[in-house]
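Thread: "does anyone have the structure for this chain?"

Original post by V.I.:
We have the sequence but no experimental structure in hand. Need at least a predicted one for the grant figures.
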Amino acid sequence: MVLDGLFRLYFILNKAQRINLEESLLTLYSSNNIWTLLQINARKIFSTCFSRVLHEKHGKDLEIFINRLFNLPMVGESGTNLESIKLDNYFTFEPLQIVNENDIKIDNIVITSSTYTLNKILTYLKNKSLPISVRLASWNRLLVLKESSTLNILEHPEVRELAKSMLSNNDEIFQTYLKSYAVTQLVNEKSFSIYYLKELMNTPFNESFSSTSAAIGTNLQTQLNEFRNLLTKTTYDQKIYTKLVINIEIWWSSQYKLCKKYETDTLFSHISDLAAMIVFIKEAILKKINKQFFTPQMKQILSNCYSDLKSDDDSRAMLLLPGILKITTSFSENLLPLFKNNILSADKTNIENAAYLIQDVAFYKDRNELELNIRELKIILLQLFAVQKESSLPAVSRTISLILENSKKFFTKKEKETLGINVDQFFSSYLSIDNQTVFKQDIFNEILINYLDIITKLRNERINVKLDQWIHFCARSKYSEINRYESILKVTANATLDK
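Reply from O.Q.:
Generated one for you, tokens below.
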């Protein structure tokens, strides 16, 4: 397809060429002929093209483009060029779903539309006789209104009542979108969240494996995502947490050994149920539930999960360890050699898991939930950042960035000043020359983005970094993901001057 081919070149085009290509994309999207030509391939091709544009936009340009998307006709909508296009929920496409599914930040954006008013969107959602493509597009536009600064749910009880009705009637929208988002973001009533969470817990976690067979597509990940959304937004009664952890124990007892067995089978290795459950325990249980709510039974169940992984020498045990140390003193693990040996390993998975370990240590220490001397751990992390070791620098730089964002008390002011010095040393080592040859370009861009995020956070805390050289570098970069930081750093510079 020519359109897909053109957008492969999008990031290397100049600004005028990009704008021309964007205009062509918007025109083609609104054309009946192109949808008739592409048919079921339209979703894949349009998704690729719009994703490239949206991930390049920021600031005012993003706001303008999102508004253009908001005012595009809906597939199958009466009275538009796309009225005759009939596609089900598997093949229809709405550009704004990219915003909703990729966590593109739009909280400072204002949506304006005389065509798609809130009342019209709600009317479309209420009308079940409309094509599903129209109702899905309306749902996406409602979510965008909610996530932007345009719609205050508290001022529109009709949105809450519609969401309740759709949930109660198991609306077909929820074959595509999570019910938990509607519960937490559109209804936003604790009693309703408790009711829905209890309903979820009445169904055991889906199991992919038995001693004689394996099932594809049990949607365990969807279940876990539903729980994660609900646990993140509200605090619940201890009995609810206990029941949830018991459900985890039931799943773990049935599936753990089978998952370990099938992970090494090339036919079933793509089924990542165990990995999904480990991350769920780490993020939604150990991190989100307050320490006071963990009963002895819960502590024992979760400790057993960790022990199983550790006994099998599975490096994913590191993902659970900081949270386990938060809830129990039964383990006397020395984190220093564990972190050091894995972050310096040649194995990328071990490096990543070690990075997650120290991020969580920082998270818990920042919230006074972990009794642990972290001085030597920080020394290792700061040393690795200073020496810029090639194999670990992507993970180390990302870890530093995330700690600065999520655990602001972890580093002292003096340590942050050292980070600023290291950032400028990196510039001298890699960016003052025309072409670095140490890293592949995609890896190098990933590292650069980590460094640019670190700079932004340091400057927000008035830590000195030589901004001018970084701004000049970003302005000259041919890569849009780097180039966009020119304006971000300029804003940071101006903001810190005003403080």
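V.I.: this helps a lot. The CA atoms of residues 39 and 87 lie 8 Å apart.
O.Q.: and The chain has 25 helices and no strands.
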